[in-house]
Amino acid sequence: MLAALLLVTSAVFAQDATDGGKVLNIAAWNEEFQSRFNDYFAAAGLVPEDVTVNWLITPNQDNAYQNKLDEMLLAQESAAPDDKVDLFLIEADYALKYVDTPYALDLATIGLTEEDLADQYQYTRDIVTDSNGVQRGTSWQATPGLFVYRRSIAKDVLGTDDPDEIQALLSDWDKFDGVAEKMAEKGYKMLSGYDDAYRVFANNISAPWVDESGKITVDPNLLRWAEQTKEYTDKGYNNRTSLWSSEWAADQGPEGKVFGFFYSTWGINFTLLGNSLATPVAEGGKEEVGNGIYGDWAVVLGPESWYWGGTWIVGATGTDNVSLVKDIMKKLTADAETMKQITIDTQDYTNTVSGMNELANSDFKSDFLGGQNHIALFAEAAPKIDMSNVGPYDQGLTEEFQAAFKDYFDGNTATVEEALENFYTAISEKYPNLTY
């Protein structure tokens, strides 16, 4: 279905966008944007009374969301008005797959201006700008990454939990490995599992996964991740878990013995907080200090600058709710006060340079992070994000690369070469149009 999306021409659609629709169809892979929409758009009374909002949620794993979205977009021209997709969400790992097709409306057609978008982080605009320089999506968040660590474990092993001192001890990978050894000596794990450091290495590759001829290249930095992870596994520096597993989540809880986790902005408030509480609370709810290990975390920049994820809102060509699409985008991604309020309410890092710098230089603090102003660190990291090496196949390539190397880490595959061969076999089935 990827090829069908890429080959379609704008002539497919008689009209790019119209108004008057009675159903607003929004395609997404989880409920994160739904909560933002409900809390800051619908709650403000901005959804017309005669419009029904319909959420089309498909899980992201193993390309399921992309496959379903492709199916819906390919049927867009012939779909009944109330069945057409009006808005759809995309991630960095596959953003270019959609913005380089006419299924994504350009923001000028929707009605957003350069003035509306001027306060957003530039990388959040670049990633949804097509090969002709046309921006076709917009985001309410920026997603720089940090290293989040347990203060109590830092004090026990390193004698301090002060973020400045911890950063000095973790400022490059050699130092990071040295701290991992010290953690193991006192019965702790440096990281939880195989995937924890992956994004840091993957965000610092020197070239895209796939070149212009369709050939896959495994960057040396990805093999550095494999080498480090194999060493951590063999030496007991990690807990041999996989990302999103129950064991990985438990390592972030009150009984966990793992020093730290690499997380971007959404991960701290959206995932780590819930995993760290003995009794999870709904987003925006009141957390009780002292419950679980609330307050026992802190953040540092870590060995390298990196990012993870981010969600972009795209207006679908053929929508019959273009004015409502514009209003949603403007309110949730181009209104500095709304976005700053989202940060204050949820501690998510939002896509307003002026707003985040204001909070970074204020007395804003996170009780969850022991009173630290983590926005200041995110504000330092965000301008360094470079998405020049992202491509349309990144989600599938990443999933298969990690899966192939888990067998190597577990000892089921004897060599790196065997793991690579298994990776190429899996990719040839998932993306038969690519070579290696």
Overview of the molecule:
The structure is a single chain. Strand 1, helix 2 and strand 2 form a beta-alpha-beta unit. The protein has 20 helices and 7 strands. Helix 12 packs parallel to helix 19 and helix 17 crosses helix 18. About 1% of the residues have low confidence. The longest helix has 17 residues. It is globular, with a radius of gyration of 22 Å. It has a 4-stranded mixed β-sheet with strand order 2-1-3-7. It folds into 2 domains: 193 residues, 3-Layer(aba) Sandwich (D-Maltodextrin-Binding Protein, domain 2); 182 residues, D-Maltodextrin-Binding Protein, domain 2 (3-Layer(aba) Sandwich), CATH 3.40.190.10. By secondary structure, the protein is α/β, with parallel strands linked by helices.
Strand content: 5-15%
What integer is the average pLDDT?
A: 93
Low-confidence stretches: 7-12
Distance between the termini: 21 Å
Strand-helix topology:
Layout: H1 2-7, E1 23-28, H2 32-40, E2 52-57, H3 64-74, E3 87-91, H4 95-99, H5 107-110, H6 114-117, H7 122-126, E4 145-150, H8 151-158, H9 163-169, H10 173-185, H11 198-202, H12 220-235, H13 246-250, E5 260-264, H14 265-276, E6 297-300, E7 311-315, H15 322-333, H16 336-346, H17 353-360, H18 374-381, H19 394-410, H20 416-430
Parallel strand pairs: 1-2, 1-3
Antiparallel strand pairs: 3-7, 4-5, 4-6
Helix pairs in contact: 12-19, 16-17, 17-18, 19-20
